[in-house]
Structure to design on (134 residues):
């Protein structure tokens, strides 16, 4: 039975049309799937958007253990990375940019120069200056 969307984090039909093909199908063999992939994804978005614990998932979603199992499996398989990559390419194409970024920015605070914070000569000069003033 399909769940009626009622949370701000739920996917709209248009969003699901874009995201749905990127979400893996249920595993073949065994019992048929008890829950729709869209309901599982809506539950994951509810948890992540709301910042609540898995056990606080409302009862109109599938059971929290089921949702967490899908989340863990999809995360290990790289589903969310592929989903983000595909959406980024789509957004860049719609905005008229290249699908793949062609430039990058390096922040000086994120680049390590050395363990001591400078070259050995500079560090030695600092030490000698501080020893002379002490």
């Amino acid at each position: 039975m399909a769940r009626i969307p009622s949370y701000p984090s739920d996917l709209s039909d248009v969003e699901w049309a874009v995201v749905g093909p990127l979400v893996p199908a249920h595993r073949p063999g065994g019992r048929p799937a008890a829950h729709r992939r869209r309901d599982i994804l809506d539950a994951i978005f509810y948890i992540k958007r709301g910042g609540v614990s898995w056990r606080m998932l409302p009862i109109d979603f599938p059971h929290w253990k089921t949702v967490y199992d899908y989340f863990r499996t999809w995360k290990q398989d790289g589903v969310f990375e592929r989903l983000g990559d595909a959406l980024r390419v789509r957004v860049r194409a719609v905005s008229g940019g290249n699908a793949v970024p062609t430039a990058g920015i390096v922040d000086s605070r994120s680049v390590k120069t050395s363990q001591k914070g400078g070259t050995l000569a500079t560090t030695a000069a600092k030490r000698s200056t501080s020893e002379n003033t002490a």
